[in-house]
Specification:
The complex is a heterodimer of chains A (182) and B (119). Chain A has 182 residues and is an alpha/beta fold. Chain A has three helices and seven strands, in the order αββββαββαβ. The radius of gyration of chain A is 20 Å and the shape is globular. In chain B, β1, α2 and β2 form a beta-alpha-beta unit. Chain B is an alpha/beta fold and 119 residues long. A three-stranded parallel beta sheet of chain B has the order 1-2-3, with helices on both faces. Chain B has one domain. Classes of the chains: A alpha/beta (182), B alpha/beta (119). Chains A and B meet through α1, α2, α3 and β7 of A and α1, β1, α2, α3 and α4 of B. β7 of chain A pairs parallel with β1 of chain B, so a sheet runs across the interface.
């Protein structure tokens, strides 16, 4: 049996090969940056649940993302771009799912040390959904996908963005949604 | 995203969250969650790898179809790398050099308003 440097004699993984502890990391990171208190993540004791009403091959599906269409005049936003606050958006937007705009995530904290945001498919499953629709796996890819801002206001997310997204989904006849947490 | 997922579910729209930050998504509370154990920025599969992205989507679709209750998490079985040391890097202050920390702080100042107090 070949034992790599990263496993023990029984082939078990090292202790740090677990889900990255982002809550703890971000708490310590922002305190080290000089913030007087850590960011408070939303924490819900009860989680809503709606079963799928119809078979998936008769269901129209949309995608909701925090990525932004790459827009001229807003600085570097594509692959390997540094953190770019100017690329952030403030309101819910919608864009066509077919021939979708190229998206960037330069306004978000992603792992720039280990990925580069060059391939939209790694954070936006529109191509995979189109293939699933063509194969009859899903009923349809909804005509529009939607962007939701991430400015860390829970109140705004719940009271403004949620109702706005729901209205747009209903307008499009979207019956289920895939939400992408970058 | 979990807040939006809850809002939509409470209004009759089934959802599935795709993400890489397992602890954050589960702490917030998602109805259905496909956990991708990849670096932040790759919640829908490996960059440049259509098969990986289609496999991630397929698991997300199966969650939509068959999750029995809220807070159902499924993990994409694919590993980012045999060597798990990449997990030690992101936002890990004790592992940052002084130059890395200063660069991060500079970016943070540009992003946040008002700027944090210096300690």
């Amino acid at each position: 049996m070949i034992v790599s440097a990263k496993t023990n004699a029984l082939g078990f993984a090292p202790a740090h090969d677990v889900a990255v502890p982002y809550l703890e990391r971000s708490r310590e990171y922002y305190l080290a940056m000089g913030y007087p208190k850590p960011y408070e993540w939303a924490h819900q004791a009860e989680v809503a649940f709606t079963p799928l009403e119809k078979p998936l091959n008769r269901t129209s599906i949309t995608v909701i993302t925090t990525a932004a269409p790459i827009t001229p005049g807003k600085g570097e936003q594509g692959a390997n771009a540094a953190m770019n606050p100017a690329a952030a958006f403030e309101k819910v937007y919608s864009a066509p799912s077919k021939d979708a705009p190229v998206l960037g995530i330069s306004h978000l904290h992603y792992d720039r040390g280990h990925t580069d945001a060059a391939d939209n498919g790694a954070f936006m499953p529109l191509a995979a959904l189109q293939a699933a629709a063509a194969a009859g796996r899903i009923g349809a890819l909804s005509p529009r996908f939607h962007g939701v801002p991430t400015r860390y206001s829970h109140r705004q997310t719940l009271r403004r963005d949620g109702p706005e997204l729901l209205a747009r989904l209903r307008e499009d006849g979207a019956e289920a949604a895939i939400l992408i947490a970058i | 995203m979990s807040l939006i997922a809850n809002y939509l579910e409470a209004n009759g729209i089934p959802t599935v969250v795709m993400g890489c930050a397992k602890d954050i998504v589960e702490y917030t509370g998602a109805p259905r969650f496909l956990y991708c154990d990849f670096p932040l920025g790759c919640p829908a599969g490996r960059p440049g790898d259509t098969a990986s992205q289609q496999a991630a989507l397929e698991l997300a679709l199966r969650l939509l179809e068959s999750a029995p209750a809220p807070r159902t998490t499924v993990q994409l079985p694919e590993r980012w790398h045999d060597d798990p040391d990449w997990k030690l890097d992101f936002f890990n202050v004790p592992n940052m050099s002084e130059a890395e920390f200063e660069q991060a702080r500079k970016e943070e100042l540009a992003w946040r308003k008002p700027p944090p107090k210096t300690v």
